[in-house]
Amino acid sequence: MKFPVGSLPECDRLNFRLPSLDDAVFYLQLMKDPDYIRFIADNGITSEEKAREYIKDKPLARFAQFNVGLWVVELKETGQAAGVCGLVVRDELEYPDLGYAFLEEFRGRGIAREAARAVLEHSYLDLKLEKLCAITAPDNKRSADLLKKIGFKAQGQRLLNEIGETSDYFICELGRVPTNVS
């Protein structure tokens, strides 16, 4: 599955862009966050050099292979990287997976919801997708609540070999989600 190259998600307060090796400090901060480690993964990112290797081997490799991935999400007002949000293509899942992670200082401000909604709209209007899925750690209530608010429906759990854990599994039918609901 490869998607067309072109536009990026858009929304009022945020810019989306491709990750770069210059984002090593940001990725190090994001991936050392205790909630990132608890709910997403401990990728062993302990230095800027390891962060650069990760960026090259994961996000940039996914964009090269599929033309989608987790974009860096920046505040338009300041240009500061707040998190990542986008689509992950996984062999074990029948639909692209909406993924996101934000630095602690940006949580609780509606930024993740705005970014996720922009990716949903982009997926439907620009990528012509009809459905997306999402996975969360079973104890990540905050993320599950966000997914439900933006139109995802819980579909039980899935054991994913790629991540080695059982995740809660959600589906969103994109054409049925109003794009103007916050």
Strand content: 25-35%
Number of strands: 7
The SS-based structural class is: alpha+beta
Kindly provide the radius of gyration, computed on alpha-carbon positions and rounded to a whole number of angstroms.
15 Å
CATH superfamily of the domain at 14-130: Gcn5-related N-acetyltransferase (GNAT)
Helix count?
6
Q: Give a quick account of the main beta sheet: strands, pairing sense, barrel closure.
A: 4 strands, antiparallel
Mean pLDDT: 92
- Record the strand order, biggest sheet: 1-2-3-4
| Net shape | globular
How far apart the termini lie comes to: 30 Å
Question: Describe it for me?
Answer:
It is built from six helices and seven strands. By secondary structure, it is of the alpha+beta class. The protein has a domain at 14-130: Aminopeptidase, CATH 3.40.630. The strands form two sheets. A four-stranded antiparallel β-sheet has the order 1-2-3-4. α1 packs across α3 (48-57) and α3 packs parallel to α4. The longest helix is centred in the middle third of the chain and has 15 residues, at 111-125. The relative contact order is 0.16.
What's this entry about, in short?
The chain has 182 residues and is an alpha+beta fold.
Tag the structure with descriptive keywords:
alpha+beta; Aminopeptidase; 7 strands; globular; 182 residues
Record the SSE blueprint:
Blueprint (H helix, E strand, L loop, with lengths): L13 E4 L6 H9 L1 H6 L8 H10 L1 H8 L3 E6 L5 E8 L8 E6 L8 H15 L5 E6 L4 H9 L3 E8 L4 E9 L9
Antiparallel strand pairs: 1-2, 2-3, 3-4, 5-7, 6-7
